[in-house]
Design a protein that fits this description.
Layout lengths: L6 E4 L10 E7 L3 H8 E2 L10 E8 L6 E10 L10 E7 L2 H13 L3 E2 L4 H8 L5 H11 L4 H11 L4 H23 L9 H19 L2 H9 L1 E7 L5 H9 L17 E7 L2 E7 L9 H16 L2 E7 L6 H10 L4 E6 L18 E3 L8 H13 L14 H22 L4 H19 L5 H8 L7
Parallel strand pairs: 1-7, 8-10, 8-11, 11-12, 12-13
Antiparallel strand pairs: 1-2, 2-6, 3-4, 4-5, 5-6, 9-10
Helix pairs in contact: 4-5, 6-7, 6-14, 7-13, 13-14
């Protein structure tokens, strides 16, 4: 990537044959010059930063008008990339923005790579790496909570504590190295105080690391499979939960022959619910394929809702299904509890998450959602008061920092020479720096920003 080049891309969603506004974005030293060649502003409208101009976009070779549009100027350094940025606000749809983009490319710009605008913002000091990743998280947020977490990251809520921890490690390193270089001129090192400081940093790292699971849930969502015998009310449960008629419900066992999906939101977490075919031995070839897909859905799900009929209770068929799923996270759902007392159902004592429902009256749905949140979130007190949620890359770096700090504590306790302390302190500093971008390789940057959309 050459930063001196002017890049261009469509910066808005393109919907075929419709859409009100489409945006083509330019960034680089040639952005304004390209805009002046393409954009004709009637009257005496000033080409000043953070001004919107009205006019038309024309082909500079033929003079043919391509679109009536607005032009937004954001001159360096007051722009997202800290370069000159120009945006053409065209009519939406496929053709206007595609034609304007082609004119930009023909006039000297090149097509931006995925995430290149955000990468330039990072390289030019406009964003740190956590903020840049939060931009992508905000664009892809699937729930209000996920959007709030992304906004917190964009405001520096993650970068600030990480920088503080890295600074503390640098201070400890400086203290230790001073004793190595100037041992005779300085008082003895207070090893107990250093150990306490390292332990404090490690505890803070663990506290932030505890948000990784929540971050993964908010970003990726949860896949839940409703599993059980035929005719225990799996489809009725899905319909009651989603308040729709996604699944066909009859009194005939084996009605569901394939996996039916529904997308829900539970406690701010996107949930993909899979209503599976009843698991049983059958000679029907179509139903047999449905049962096979049910087993596959159960194997791939993050959580299983093992559903049974309160009237039938726990039968040999339930025992057989349970043998296949007992090592997976599951909640036992005793359905049709209006027809038989659910407390009479005998089930294996190791099953601790149990909910009673009556799908036909939507009874027990709130309790089911609470049980799901308890299963996936647990009692994570450490992360409860943090409004951040780290991603997998950040979690890996924090884990490396945590491991290095543990090694420092072990070196102090052993005790090992001070040189050994500094090796692991530098490792912790490097790992923390990789999170915000102080210590990051070009290959890591390529990996991060390649997941962005082209216009971001």
């Amino acid at each position: 990537m050459e930063q001196g080049e002017t890049i261009a891309a469509i910066a808005s969603a393109v919907v075929p044959h419709q859409g009100s506004i489409g945006i083509v974005r330019l960034s680089g030293s040639g952005a304004v010059a390209i805009a002046r060649q393409l954009f004709h502003a009637p009257g005496t409208q000033p080409w000043e930063t953070h001004r919107i101009l009205y006019g038309s976009i024309r082909n500079p070779q033929t003079g043919v008008m391509v679109d009536e549009a607005l032009l937004l100027l954001m001159l360096a350094p007051r722009s997202f990339t800290r370069e000159d940025v120009v945006e053409f606000h065209c009519h939406g749809g496929m053709m206007p923005v595609q034609q304007v983009l082609q004119l930009c490319l023909q006039t000297g710009a090149r097509l931006a790579e995925p995430g290149e605008f955000s990468l330039r913002a990072f390289l030019n000091g406009r964003l740190d790496l956590t903020q840049a990743e939060s931009v992508a998280d905000l664009v892809g947020a699937g729930s209000p909570q996920a959007a709030q977490m992304a906004l917190a990251g964009l405001r520096g809520k993650l970068a600030q504590p990480i920088r503080q921890l890295r600074g503390q490690c640098l201070d400890i390193l400086a203290e230790v190295e001073a004793r190595i270089d100037f041992e005779e001129d300085l008082p003895p090192l207070d090893e107990g105080a250093i150990a306490a400081q390292v332990a404090q940093v490690r505890e803070q790292v663990a506290r932030i690391l505890a948000t990784a699971h929540r971050g993964e849930l908010l970003r990726s969502g949860l896949k839940v499979a409703i599993v059980g015998q035929p005719n225990v009310g799996k489809s009725s449960l899905l319909n009651a939960w989603s308040r729709s008629d996604r699944a066909i419900v009859t009194d005939l066992p084996g009605t569901t022959r394939d996996v039916v999906e529904s997308s829900l939101m539970v406690g701010g977490i996107p949930v993909q619910v899979l209503d599976t075919a009843g698991i049983r031995e059958t000679g029907d070839q179509v139903e047999k394929m449905g049962v096979m897909r049910s087993r596959q859905a159960a194997a791939e799900a993050d959580l299983i809702l093992f559903t049974l009929d309160a009237q039938q209770g726990w039968t040999a068929a339930e025992a057989e299904i349970y043998a296949q799923i007992q090592h997976r996270p599951l909640i036992l759902v005793i359905n049709k509890s209006d027809l038989a007392p659910p407390e009479s159902v005998q089930y294996p004592p190791e099953i601790t998450a149990v909910v009673t429902t009556t799908a036909t009256t939507q009874t027990g749905i709130d309790q089911l959602e609470t049980a799901i949140l308890t299963q996936v979130q647990g009692d994570n007190i450490q992360a409860a008061d943090l409004d951040i949620a780290i991603n997998q890359r950040q979690a890996a770096a924090l884990t490396a920092a945590q491991r290095a700090l543990i090694h420092v504590e072990e070196a102090i306790a052993t005790p090992l020479p001070l040189d050994f302390w500094t090796i692991d302190l530098r490792s912790a500093i490097q790992a923390l720096g990789a999170i915000t971008g102080e210590d990051v390789t070009e290959s890591v940057l390529d990996q991060i920003f390649s997941r962005f959309c082209i216009g971001k």
